Amino acid sequence: MKTPETTYLIDSNIILRYLLNDHPEQSIKSKEFMLKLHDGKIKAEIPTFILAECVYVMEKFYHIPRKKIGDSLKKIFNFAGIVNTNKARLLNAIIKFEESSIDISDCMLAAYSSPERIVVSFDNDMKKLKAFHQRL
């Protein structure tokens, strides 16, 4: 019987060390892992909450501009080994984040909305994000 192929779940510290190149040992190991992922030699998923954590840390702690955050994360999501089934929605959320001043969590909600999946909120941001929404 064939053993199932491993799909890794990437923690934010791997992504951050790779992008920031700020730790002598961990950044090198992260780069090696991410290069295998880039080339499709391994498979991985980036959970939605990990994406949110990466954005938060880069924006609030490292003060990286939204455009640079978005560009970096979009590149990673386009690596050959990234197998998220929700990749299109997450890329859409990243684009909404880069093009607005709205929090990543609201951008994700908007990206996940559809005529059948209505966001319920008190927030005016959903209209700005062109989300399918209902304001209470």
Number of DSSP strands? 4
What radius of gyration results from the CA coordinates? 16 Å
> Which bin fits the share of residues in helices?
40-55%
Specify the structural class: mainly alpha
Give the averaged pLDDT, no decimals.
95
Strand content: 5-15%
Listing every helix as H and every strand as E from the N terminus to the C terminus, the arrangement reads EHHEHHHHEHE
In brief, what are we looking at here?
With 136 residues, the protein is mostly helical. 54% of the residues lie in helices and 9% in strands. It has a domain at 7-101.
Task: Describe, in plain words, how this protein is organized in 3D.
With 136 residues, this protein is mainly α. The protein has a domain at 7-101. The protein is 54% helix and 9% strand. It contains seven helices and four strands. The strands form two sheets. Strands 1-2 form a two-stranded parallel sheet. Strands 3-4 form a two-stranded parallel ribbon. Strand 3 (119-121), helix 7 (125-128) and strand 4 (133-135) form a beta-alpha-beta unit. The longest helix is centred in the middle third of the chain and has 14 residues, at 48-61.
